[in-house]
Design goal:
Number of strands: 2
Radius of gyration: 27 Å
Structural class: mainly alpha
Strand content: under 5%
Number of helices: 6
CATH class: Mainly Alpha
Shape: elongated
Distance between the termini: 100 Å
Largest sheet: 2 strands, antiparallel
CATH topology: Rhopdopsin 7-helix transmembrane proteins
Number of domains: 1
Length: 262
């Protein structure tokens, strides 16, 4: 049985087929591929359109945000704004690769026609930028918490330290996600991984490494940091609630004092 990279491979040789065996033709393979995929063909088209709209919005929003901050000397004096620029750059990278992610999970699921570099980088950058966003949000919440509880210590967070924190976030996530994430997937020709053509997947020989990557990586870079975000969010809600109650009590006391002299 001869196989090649596309739908035209010979599934079986007619001379070796029993008379009662059904030959699978390319059109049937295409239909079965969509039935076994994550999305149907109509869902894939609708999903692609929705992502296209979000792609345009995200590109414009992030570019405008970066431009406004970068062109304002006053805004660039804030360490917090340097963190925002870093987050916008990460979002831009994620947005640029979003069409390749959609293709990988829809039209390219059973016949991946893009060069192998997109197969390797799409998964890695998607995972990398997700972790980047989570850690940036955690840093924003931590800075906000310090500003509320210890406002006199906030001036210690300088622009230089903000840049050091940004470099650390980008480097440690790249080290923990990007390198291994690009090594795992590969474009395979027609085989047991895909009966319909080229596929971007992780080979069985690397499944154990992929399992460790997802188990350890998800816990370290996603679950733990997301849990910390939830804790800080609940804490900040409690702080804001107490502050609002304190402000309301002060207002009531002032009005009651004014009422006595009225």
């Amino acid at each position: 049985m001869k196989r090649d990279a596309g739908y035209n491979f010979t599934m079986v040789m007619s001379s070796t087929l029993p008379s009662n065996m059904t030959t699978i033709v390319p059109e049937n393979l295409k239909r079965e591929a969509w039935e076994r995929g994550i999305f149907s063909l109509s869902e894939a088209i609708a999903f692609s359109v929705a992502v296209g709209v979000m792609f345009i919005f995200s590109m414009v929003a992030n570019i405008v945000t970066i431009t406004v901050i970068a062109k304002s000397p006053k805004l660039m004096l804030s360490p917090f704004n340097h963190m925002i620029i870093s987050l916008c750059v990460s979002n831009l990278l994620s947005t640029i690769y979003s069409p390749f992610v959609v293709y990988w999970k829809t039209f390219g699921l059973f016949e991946y026609l893009l060069p192998e570099i997109f197969c390797k980088s799409t998964f890695a950058i998607e995972y990398w930028t997700n972790s980047m966003t989570i850690q940036h949000i955690l840093c924003f919440l931590a800075i906000r918490t310090v500003a509320i509880k210890y406002p006199h210590k906030l001036n210690k967070f300088t622009i230089q330290r903000a840049k050091m924190l940004i470099c650390f976030i980008w480097f440690e996530i790249a080290l923990g996600n990007l390198i291994l994430g690009m090594w795992l997937p590969h474009v395979y020709l027609s085989s047991e991984l895909s009966l319909t053509g080229r596929t971007c997947a992780v080979h069985r020989s690397r499944w154990k490494y992929a399992g460790l990557f997802f188990y350890i990586g998800n816990h370290i870079f996603l679950f733990i940091f997301t849990f910390l975000i939830v804790i800080l969010t609940v804490f900040l809600i409690g702080v804001f609630t107490k502050r609002m109650e304190s402000i309301r009590e002060n207002c009531i006391q002032r009005f009651s004092i004014l009422g006595r002299y009225a």
